[in-house]
Every structure is written in structure tokens, then in C-alpha cells.
Amino acid sequence: MIERLQATDLRNLQHVKLQAAACNVIIGENGSGKTSLLEAIFLLSRGKSFRHSQPKRYVQHHRPSAIVHATLTDGTSLAIQKQTDATTILRLNQSTVYNQSMLTEQLPTLLIDPSSMDMLEQGSASRRQLLDWLVFHMKQGFHPQWVAYQRLLKQRNSLLKQSKSLTPVQLAELKSWNKGLANHAALIHHYREQVFLAWQPYFEKSIAQLLPSYAQQISLSYHAGYDAAIPLDVQLDERLAQDLQLGYTRIGSHRADIHVHWRSESEIDAKDEKPKSATEYHTDTTKPAELKEQKVPTLKEQAANVLSRGEKKLLITALRLSQLPLLLKKDLIGESVSQNTQADNHRTTTPVVLLDDITAELDDRAIDILLSTLAKLPCQVFMTSLTADVLPIVNQYWSSPSVFHMKQGQLSIFT
User: 7, 26, 185, 400 — which has fewest CB within 10 A?
Assistant: First the structure.
């Protein structure tokens, strides 16, 4: 849990210091800098902003870099410096480190931002990241496999872009990469599927709370990004001509997806409609022609096409909120943590939940469900609000919340 936080030269936060509590409320007008404070915490944890990918967009104008530093309650110190040219310096306990995952492990941060509905209606990347965040924190072996897979994928795509035909030497090299990708993909899929199956009951519970009328009609499905029943290298070899034509790798773990789908009343009643496994249904990440090739049943309807705007906000909230109870019980499906000191330390970390302007996006009932659920979990909360209207609800669930006022990038105690 964060004890002290400092943010320097990030947007309009020239130099902000914060002594944090279990629950922290930042009140301020639009443009005051309250969301930038959440952005600072997210940046420290993830190594990137949830608002812009380029550091020059969030580093304060005419300043060389933005710096975020935090001290946790156990004495651990974390720091990140992002320069305008995207150069990154990471520090863990005053020592320079070179892997963002080391900070991420110490500070698992979950953003609940129901105003963003991109994950439901756009590409699969944000939905895949939603699952991978959970897998990263629950499965010790996932991250090394994912890094190795990404490295091989980059090499393969680079070769595919060079020419429409390959020499015998290039072909042999490609086949070697395909084999490596297949080995990593199998483990990545194994980790993802295990976590996904464990996540589903928590999602169903959240949906029952936030969207009770649709509890039987909204469900999740996971697609590996390829036919997991066949080794990936076999499929890549078969699709080589098409990949060469397009200049990139069309299938694999990098195309995995979480699909939120809608079941009609007739589907609910039909006994044979119930999925037999987490991977039974195919998502919409592949083109129609490819769907036919893979011979995987497609879903009749996406939930995003049926729900109203307000219901979509509740759905996104349920997706993120349902991850926290599972994360806090990760030892139930994780590796044997007693055999690994690092894993034992990993279990003691307190998730930090960032709630951005929830009073403007959710109704009172949804806010009450969200906050009451968070208050029961061993997590730290930072929330922003335009007004103090949220405070009566907050005071119901936290005995000593810290309340701050943000104005023009300056933070003060709210009175």
C-alpha cells in the first residue's frame, strides 16, 4: 500500500506530495489535475499512461521529464522517470532496475474507469490486457513466456515484411521461430485459461450485483488467438503464404481475446447451448474467412450491441471489479507459493484501485455497490470526484478516509 506519493512535472502537477490512507478522495473541477494524480500512480505501476502512449504528451511543457516516487507501508520505495524521448529510468529501493515488471509486482494497480467503453467495441488489445494483468499477478511463469513470445514474434514479423518470398536459409530460420512461438504460446494459453476459468464465477457475481436483470444473459468467453488443439507452429506453417502476403503474423497468443457475449432467452433455455470449456466460442478478432477456416462456432450477439450506454458502464465496472477478489485469493490456483520466497513476497502486495470520476458515470446504487465491495477487500483506493457529494457514501465504509482538494495542480487538505 502506498504511504507517500510524489509527482513532479507530470501535466500540471509541478510538485505534488501526498500522505496516503487506505481510502483517498481527490475533489476538484475538470482540468484541476485530479485525474493526473491517478495517472501518476498508474505510470509508476505500469510504466505507461492510461491517457496517452507518448511521454511528451504528459511531461510538463518545457520540462525534460516527469518523475513519480512512492514509498510503500513496508518501506519499499519505487520511482520512475519518463523523459520526453521515452527514455525511462526505474528505481527500486534506491537501486536502478531495468524491468518494469519489478515495479509492477510491488504495486499492482487496477483502474476502474467506466467512462471508457473502448474495450467492448474496438479491438481486442484492451480486453486481452485485462486478462493478462490478472494472469501476470497470479502466475509467476507467465511474464517470462510472454516476453520471449513477443521477442520471437517481432523477429518473425520483421522477416515477413522483408520479402514476399523466402530463401531456404530464411525459411529454416522462420520454422525455428515458429517452433519457439508454439512452445511459448502453449504455456501462455495454459496460464490464461486457468486464470480465466477461475475469474468467471467472480464476474458472474459482479454482474448479478450491478446488472441483476441480465445475470443469466451476460457471460464471458476466451479465445486463445489460434486453434489451441493444434500446435501453433503447424498452423503458422500452413498460413505462411498468407502471412508473407500481408507482412505480419495473423494468429497466435498476440491475438487472444476476451469476448463479452449476450445469450437470448432461447439460448439460456437450451441445454446444449452451455459452453463445454472456456475456449468453445470464437470471438470477433478474426476475419469471417478465417472463422470458416478454423471451424469454431461464432457467437450470435455481442453484449455491446444490446446494452445501453449506462449498462455498458456497469458491465465494464463489473469486469474490473471482479478481478480483485480473485487476485487476493491467487494462491488458490497459483503455483506452490511456499516453495518460492519471491512468490511469498508477491502475495503480500496490496492492490491499488484507481476510480476516476465515478460520480459522473455511475448512479448512486452502482456507486454504493462498488464502494461497499472495495471496502471489504484489503486494497487501497484513490478516487476522484467533481464535488463532495460522494463523501457521505465514502464515510459509510471507511472510518478515516483522506480527502484532498485539487486546484490548478496544487493539492491541499479538503475542508
Answer: 400
